[in-house]
Amino acid sequence: MPLRYKSELSEHHAVRQNVGLFDLSHMGEFLVRGAGAAAWLNSLLTNDIHKLSPGKAQYTFLLNPQGGIIDDLIVYQIEPELFMLVVNAATTQKDWEWLQAHLPASGVSLEDISGETVLLALSGPASEAVLQKLTDLPVGEMPYYTCRRGTVAGIENVLVATTGYTGEWTYELFVRKAHGVTLWEALMQAGEVVPAGLAARNTLRLEMGYLLYGTDADEQTTPLEAGVGWAVKLDKGAFIGQEALRQQKQRGLSRRLFGLVSESARVIPRNNTPLLNEKGEEIGRITSGSIGPTVGRGIALGYLPTGYEIGQTVYFQLRGQMMPLTIVRPPFVQETSLARRQKARV
Question: Which of 37, 62, 181, 295 could form a disulfide with 70 if both were Cys (CB 3.0 to 4.6 A apart)?
Answer without folding.
Answer: 62
